[in-house]
Amino acid sequence: MTAPAILPARGAADRLTGTFWRRPRLLLVLLITPPLLWLGVVYLGSLFALLLQSFYSIDEFSGVVKEEFTLKTYGELFRAQNLDIIVRTVVMATAVTLACAILAFPIAYYAARYARGPWKAAFYLGVMLPLWSSYLVKVYAWKLILAKEGILGWAAAGTHTSWIIDGILSIPGLEGSSLSTSPFGTFLVFVYIWLPYMILPMQAALERVPNSMLEASADLGATRSQTFRTVILPLALPGVIAGSIFTFSLTLGDYIIPQIVGDSSRFIGLTVYQLQGTAGNTPLAAAFAVVPILIMLVYLTLAKRAGAFDAL
Amino acid sequence: MTSAVEFHNVSRHFGPVKAVDRVDLTIAEGSFFAMLGPSGSGKTTCLRLISGFEKPTGGQIRIFGEDVSNTPPHLRNVNTVFQDYALFPHMNVRDNVAYGLMVKGIGRAQRHARAEEMLALVKLDAYGDRKPAQLSGGQRQRVALARALVNEPRVLLLDEPLGALDLKLREAMQDELKALQRRLGLTFVFVTHDQHEALSMADSLAVFNDGRIAQIGSPQDIYDRPATRFVADFVGSSNVLPPALTRALGGPEQWASLRPEATRLAATGPVSGTVTALRYLGSGTRVVIHTGDTEIAALVPAGQPVPAEGATTAIAFEPSALHLMGAN
User: Fold this and answer.
1) What is the end-to-end Cα distance of chain B in Å, rounded?
2) H helix runs in chain B, sequence order
3) Is there a contact between A252 and A268 (Cβ–Cβ < 8 Å)?
4) DSSP per-residue letters across A118-130
5) Residue range B42-54: average pLDDT?
């Protein structure tokens, strides 16, 4: 007897697979509906609620939120003290992003182009390990490292390099009794905490640049720096942008590091936290929270216009 | 004639692996030189030694008489067409071709004009504004060629440039490459594992085996007079006769090769065997005769009688067609 041309269905799994084969869209719909609901309702919904709140205002005498549409709250952002917070946060986020990009590039480049086998595993472990430990523990550890009697000050005294720390602490804007109370300390901790978020996308982008492309550039007469500027950087740019979105927006929104390390000057995240929590001024907190979103949109538009995503 | 490239006892070892081992080689200026061999035989490493992407672990390489031991790739007046073409995906075709001129600091208008000339040379005049991703494989190959030629290199290196193309396109490109080489009078060094490609295109070729050159010579030399068993096996459809069989056929006790075209079927002879396979080729029929452990192919021209499978037949040939060779 010859085998039949059509095999009998063995059970529900066979019939289900058959249904999915006849209706290819069905599986897709089943798979993406739950996450879409989550994203649409919980995530975008809360964002929309936030946006709505920012158009309300607060009654200055009673402290009650008035549910009428007004741009008054946004106007408050332009008061000198609030503008100061925004500018300080953006400057810090920019400095942190630049420092992360400069530190991350050689590490990501090494990992993408040279590390193999156990070295690659060591790279992933080295980059990810700090992410697995508690954020607060890391920040407090840094406070101790940067404190006046901390290991950094001790090492500087031992090597007669205290003048470097003193020099940094005497720069206008970075003053403090020690690094742990100077804005420079805040900067260092931000860079440490967010660095993995820059390294990983950069490494992924660099890994996709084939070696032959670098060889072709050298073959055609380019120096190392020309190859870097005209081939490696443009091809790695989407990764750099992805990483900078992380470091930039995480710094814009963080409210813990500036409380623990630094001179207690206020940043957007901390301000939102205080306005929402202690002051009860939800509309202004919401308006502050919209600022990073707008900044990121402007940043991405500029990056797109500069051709950062052409290589995607 | 000047030599474009010379290898003097050149080796490239990767730890215990001898990718290239004590190779001596001279490539004449203006010639079309092919490096032929199976994968892992060292031919691509040799090409990379010329371009500078590999450094020899021993020996000396000269390009137009000059020792290039300390010359990095970007200062060698040698350009490469890469196997995967390696076109820059973020630049359009014109900028890709003009890249070599850009890094030399030549102004935009001038380098674009020059790039257009090169694109015209490879018949892609209208494609300057496209991105590499919008081109077919054959078109990308031409862009890679134009990009490598824009710097007016003294030697053009081609690493299996036709490997990714389908048969028809490959044949067309073979003719075009050959014509281009003649027209420009440049030295082309061409790496391939395709013996037909090497034989039909090259003025001379080197056959690589295990990091060493098994034979170097003109296509006729290599096809008609393979120096070793390996060359006969790899290059031709030649019959390779072990020493005992050569002796039985009236030669000395040595390895020999015999081309199927020179092999005839006869009623009687010193060696006979069983017909095990027939392949109709149009211009004739290839008959495989099994004798002892050896298979011998004979080409029976169209119009002559062909034996049936399983029949017994003897083989005959002109004594001059038997070519003796080394064992390796």
Assistant:
1) 32
2) 43-51, 93-102, 108-121, 137-149, 167-184, 195-201, 219-224, 229-235, 243-248
3) yes
4) HHHHHHHHHHHHH
5) 94
* Biggest alpha carbon–alpha carbon distance for chain A: 94
Distant-in-sequence contacts of A13-21, Cβ < 8 A, 24+ apart: none
What is the CATH code of the structural domain delimited by B237-324? 2.40.50.140
Chains A, B: CB contacts within 8 A come to 69
User: Does residue B96 register a pLDDT over 60?
Assistant: yes
Q: Does residue B181 sit in helix, strand or coil?
A: helix
CA distance B144 to B150: 10
Which residues of A fall within a CB distance of 8 Å from B45? none
Alpha-carbon distances, residue B65 vs A42, B43, B217 (angstroms):
73, 22, 21
B106–chain A Cβ distance below 8 A for any pair: no
String of b and e for B218-254 (b: at least 16 CB within 10 Å)? ebeebbbebbbbbbbebbbebbbbbeebbebbebeee
The pair of three-digit structure tokens given for residue A111, joined into one six-digit string = 């990992």
Q: How far is residue A228's CA from residue A212's CA, in Å, rounded to a whole number?
A: 14
pLDDT at A184: 92
Shortest Cα distance, chain A CAs vs residue B50, angstroms: 11
**CATH topology for the B3-231 domain:** Rossmann fold (3.40.50)
Confidence of residue A310 (pLDDT cuts 50, 70, 90): low
Q: Check if the beta carbon of residue A145 is closer than 8 Å to that of residue A137.
A: no
Tokens standing for B71?
Answer: 């010359």
The string of pLDDT tens digits covering residues A27-36 is 899 999 989 9
Query: pLDDT, tens digit, for every residue of A53-76?
Result: 888 888 777 777 778 888 888 888
Could you state, in order of their start, the residue ranges of all structural domains in chain B?
A: 3-231, 237-324
Q: Are B246 and B294 in contact (CB under 8 A)?
A: no
| Cα A98 from Cα A88, distance rounded (Å) | 15
Give DSSP secondary structure letters for B45-86: HHHHHHHTSS--SEEEEEETTEE-TT--GGGSSEEEE-TT--
What type of residue is B90? Answer: H
Whether B288 shows a pLDDT value over 70: the answer reads: yes
B71 at the A interface (CB within 8 A)?
no
Query: Are A271 and A288 a contacting pair, CB within 8 Å?
Result: yes
Q: A220 and B90 in contact by Cβ < 8 A?
A: no
Confirm if A182 and A174 have CB atoms less than 8 A apart: yes
Q: Tell me the pLDDT tens digit for each residue of B167-200.
A: 888 888 888 899 999 998 999 999 999 888 899 8
Q: What is the set of domains in chain A, with CATH numbers?
A: 72-130+190-305 (1.10.3720.10)
One-letter amino acid of A107? I
| Minimal Cβ distance to A216: which of B52, B78, B82 | B82
Question: Is the interface score ipTM higher than 0.90?
Answer: no
The closest of A99, A179, A196, A100 to A142, measured between CA atoms, is A179
B295: exposed, middle or buried (Cβ count in 10 Å: 0-12, 13-18, 19+)? middle
